[in-house]
Amino acid sequence: MAMGRRAFLGAAVGAAAGALAACSSEGAPSPAGTSTTSPVTPPAARAPEPIGDGSTRDSGPQPRQPVAQRLAPGEVPPQFVVLSWDGAGETAAKLFTRFRGVAQDVHGSMTFFLSGIYTLPESKRKLYAPPQHPVGSSAIGFLSDSSVHATIEQVGLAWTEGHEIGTHFNGHFCGPTGVQRWSPAEWNSEIDQAIGFVSNWRTNTGFTDLPPLPFDYRRELIGGRTPCLEGGANLRRAKRVQGWKYDSSGTGTQVWPSRFANGLWNLPMQQIPFPGHTFEVLSMDYNMMYNQSKTPNGDPGMRATWGSQAKESFLAGFRRAYGSNRAPLIIGNHFERWNGGIYMDAVAAAVTAMADHPDVRFVSFRQLVAWLEAQDPAVLRRLRSLPVGHQPKGGWAEYLGAA
């Protein structure tokens, strides 16, 4: 019998102290087909160690992280949903704050792909030397000092709440003169600068009323997404990413993830159904907006229709996976009020509806990778063999029971 959202989330909260349990608990395997929760790994009991100029500190293991464990034989995989955000800057619209609240409502985690220059005041823009572009330039511009302050504050709160802080790099250069032309060495420079801006915000901003970010970003950073999903091939050849766990810079379909040749998990944006259209759309607000209005400020009279299409598109992708191969649903959005904010409302409403279903886990990329790496490789091979929208022949118990 399906449980409603209240009952399902209540069970997760009781077992995981407010963090969504993405994996099975430690100990004996659960019976096939059941949904289990896991304890939360507590932070280490030690004094935080300041790093560099005190902009960051080593606070030990991140709080609110579920413990990954293998599926029991024949057990139905959870339906993972990864909500990720490109740029992740906090402006007057307070969308970072809003979606931290959404995550709390569904007892889940998200991934925030921080643009490094969002921690750098515009007055210090000359500190940024983008590859193949003038010093101090950026295609996305710089935030106001007040927004830089708010972004740093939000990043610290998000990490403490269990969310992942990835990277969207810095200047967001797209197209023929953009990141697709960058060499691996130039990607190394871009990554080093992103880490440097996050790790030295105190010196660069002069802010004295914010606590240090509670993590060492050099070790925290295990994945990212390139601007416009371009330049991934050379990024993955860069020395700085060889210690990462994943890359989310490509496009794909709703199937279970595999690895690139260098060992990184390939966690791409996905093609999902697009109601009212004869084609599928990437699971990203920008792509929906572009296919609806071409511009961030389209016809106000169409916004209700477009917003409904966006919500139903996210839900169609969810339902297709949930009712078939259970491939993780990956959503990539932006903190933007395009077309009057309809895409923010759409994804918030869609997430609320998804949470009404049993066995749904809202996780970060970091948590998804931990779960994938805990599985029997034979089980993952079988999961990857399921095409988009296909259920396992004979049911899950038979399909995974003998793996």
What does this structure look like?
This protein is of the alpha/beta class and 403 residues long. It has one domain: Glycoside hydrolase/deacetylase (TIM Barrel), CATH 3.20.20.370. The protein contains 13 helices and 15 strands. It has helices at 5-16, 95-105, 145-160, 184-199, 201-205, 217-220, 232-235, 285-292, 303-322, 342-354, 365-374, 377-384, 396-401; strands at 40-41, 49-51, 56-58, 65-66, 79-87, 111-114, 164-167, 246-247, 251-252, 258-259, 265-266, 269-272, 281-282, 329-334, 360-363. Strands 5, 6, 7, 14 and 15 form a 5-stranded parallel beta sheet that branches. Strands 8-11-10 form a 3-stranded mixed beta sheet, with helices on one face. Strands 9-12-13 form a 3-stranded mixed beta sheet. Helix 2 (95-105) runs parallel beside helix 10 and helix 9 (303-322) runs parallel beside helix 10 (342-354). The longest helix is centred in the C-terminal third of the chain and has 20 residues, at 303-322. It is globular and about 60 Å long.
CATH class: Alpha Beta
Radius of gyration: 21 Å
Level-2 CATH architecture: Alpha-Beta Barrel
The oligomerization state is single chain
CATH topology: TIM Barrel
Task: Please bin the fraction of helical residues.
Answer: 25-40%
Largest sheet: 5 strands, parallel
Low-confidence stretches: 1-38
> Would you identify the CATH H-level superfamily?
Glycoside hydrolase/deacetylase
Class from helix and strand fractions: alpha/beta
Kindly estimate the percentage of residues that lie in beta strands according to DSSP.
5-15%
Mean of pLDDT = 90
